[in-house]
User: Which sequence fits this backbone?
């Protein structure tokens, strides 16, 4: 099974991408602004604190036509593509592709449709375990969990009753093999009551902005979740920022050493993805709930890295293997097309002129950008100009030091992602240095 026509379609529709950009801006009544033109000045004392804050990008997910109501089943409704999304044609149920540096959306399909979220469960469990469990304190396996582990029949991951395992080894078992038995050991170490743990997960989800995600317990007392890929992206960004999680996520195979036990050979059940992609794929984790599979991949291009989130539903248990094979190939096609179709580009350069502000006393303050900021854009959309909004106090208190943060410029791109860049004076004004 190789391959879809993704790259060909991308090449055929670059012009369409540009037309969509123009149509969206004209249709929404949002003008293209030259770099020196500012749409409005927001007078805000909160934004003009002299404390230096990092420039950031705030990505707004694509608007969705999918109902966020109680119907969680897979349907035929799809999210509306954002302004400059390349028109990939894909077969699998849902996708969310974003760059890891800024979180900007590069491609999505049904990314806001809620369904079972097995990878959300595994990842949130890993997050809480890394934050709350001491890896030096081994966890004991009960008879019930040992029996469950035996039934999973995972090579080298049979947990034995009464044996002790480090939280990190159990995390390897969850993230590399989707072991429900290992997940249960970690869950019971975090909370005696699974409903209480689900509540903790929900609280953490809200902190991360996962407003469409609900963690719960099933009738049998197992952890479960309904979520969407846009929410999962927030969780995955947080998870891969943690060194231990990211190390496990990027493990293709490894020999794990644990005190008082023989070394254990571990191999990511998605290890073939590394091989098939000629090592374009740098990390992966798969989780299953019933016939629903969610897979996360990371891939590195010449100058930026992306994460691909993918959900697929098998028609029957007998088609699982074919489904996963097809999913990996299609994800690989999307990765190649993204790296061929998008470029990492400078949005603004540190020290570049922003605008001039004339004070009431006649003093002119020349604002410059305090950071160099990059963004990811379609190669064919090189000539677009973002909407700009300057947020700075109308009256700037003197003296002013060179490089002091005086406000922010907000860049809004065609995909509605917002980049916030700090601005400050290009020189000292009425200080002891002048």
Assistant:
């Amino acid at each position: 099974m190789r391959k879809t026509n993704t790259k060909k379609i991308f090449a055929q529709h670059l012009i369409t991408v540009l037309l969509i950009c123009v149509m969206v801006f004209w249709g929404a009544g949002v003008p293209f602004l030259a770099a020196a033109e500012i749409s409005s000045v927001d007078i805000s004392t909160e934004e003009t604190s002299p404390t230096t804050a990092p420039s950031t990008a705030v990505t707004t997910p694509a608007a969705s036509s999918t109902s966020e109501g109680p119907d969680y089943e897979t349907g035929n409704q799809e999210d509306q593509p954002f302004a400059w999304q390349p028109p990939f044609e894909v077969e699998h149920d849902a996708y969310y592709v974003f760059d890891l540096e800024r979180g900007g959306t590069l491609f999505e399909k049904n990314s806001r449709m809620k369904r079972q979220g097995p990878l959300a469960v595994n990842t949130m469990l890993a997050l809480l375990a890394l934050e709350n469990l001491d890896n030096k304190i081994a966890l004991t396996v009960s008879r019930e969990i040992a029996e469950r582990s035996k039934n999973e029949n995972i090579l080298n991951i049979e947990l034995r009753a009464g044996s002790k395992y480090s939280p990190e080894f159990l995390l390897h078992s969850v993230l590399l093999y989707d072991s429900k038995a290992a997940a249960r050991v970690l869950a019971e170490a975090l909370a005696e009551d699974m409903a209480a743990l689900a509540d903790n997960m929900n609280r953490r989800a809200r902190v991360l902005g996962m407003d469409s995600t609900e963690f719960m317990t099933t009738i049998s007392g197992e952890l479960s979740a309904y979520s969407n890929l846009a929410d999962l992206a927030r969780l995955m960004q947080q998870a891969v920022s943690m060194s231990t999680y990211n190390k496990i996520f990027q493990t293709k195979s490894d020999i794990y050493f644990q005190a008082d036990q023989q070394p254990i050979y571990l191999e990511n059940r998605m290890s073939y993805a590394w091989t098939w992609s000629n090592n374009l794929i740098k990390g992966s984790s798969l989780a299953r709930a019933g016939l629903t599979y969610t897979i996360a991949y990371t891939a590195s291009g010449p100058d930026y890295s992306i994460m691909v989130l993918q959900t697929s539903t098998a028609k029957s248990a007998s088609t699982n293997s074919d489904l996963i094979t097809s999913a990996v190939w299609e994800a690989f096609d999307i990765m190649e097309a993204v790296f061929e179709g998008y470029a990492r580009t400078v949005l603004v350069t540190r020290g570049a002129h922003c605008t001039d502000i004339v004070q009431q006393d006649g003093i002119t303050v020349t604002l410059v950008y305090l950071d160099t900021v990059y963004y990811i854009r379609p190669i064919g959309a090189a000539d677009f100009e973002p909407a700009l909004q300057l947020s700075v106090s109308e009256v700037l208190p003197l003296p002013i030091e060179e490089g002091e943060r005086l406000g922010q410029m907000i860049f809004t791109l065609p995909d509605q992602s917002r980049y916030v860049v700090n601005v400050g004076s290009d020189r000292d004004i009425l200080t002891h240095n002048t």
Notes: Residues 7-53, 57-82 have pLDDT under 50 and may be disordered.
